[in-house]
């Protein structure tokens, strides 16, 4: 029986690349995102494995439970959970829509936490049966410092990293491994969605193919934290030693517009 990966945010960007990588390595897929048309197109690309499409808007309260229930109703055994769905917003906290920021927290934190809780028993069961089972959570290099002009986004990714590292330690004796991918700026629709196309941070990006490959390979090797790209790794390390106020000023400069 092929392993099965559930991938959120699979219609584009990193999720799309993860889907292709997991499929190429023999995984059947459950793919979810808001855009059903794009999910169906992805399914048509991946004809050599079983692909189940479940459209879902994870910014809506209760969507995670609905997704879990639909997977259970279809009796699909999940052995890999890829919590990839997420988005950011650029601008001063008090000038951004509160509802949009709440939606961001719902996707980046609440849905990720809920799906992890719902599917963890299935992952433990798979691991007990000798199958490779694990969770790949997508955070960001934003997780390592505060980020003015993207304050809620940076804070949400700090949560993902902290939660994932703690969970990895809790599960170390269960054979369910937890990997956190912390990419820097990546050439996806992220900056367009965040209304940050002109931010200095967007001037230099890694390809989504390279980032997803680093994440998938790190997941396969059961690494706990993956930071793709040499400069991203240097920045993540430096953030541990630079005063938080200085790190915040640097992040604010990078999140600001190019002059």
TrEMBL record:
InterPro entries: NAD(P)-bd_dom_sf (IPR036291), SDR_fam (IPR002347). Its EC number is 1.-.-.-. Keywords: Oxidoreductase. The keyword Oxidoreductase applies. One of its GO terms (molecular function) is oxidoreductase activity. Coiled coil: none annotated. Belongs to the short-chain dehydrogenases/reductases (SDR) family. This is SDR family oxidoreductase. The lineage of its organism: Bacteria, Bacillati, Bacillota, Bacilli, Bacillales.
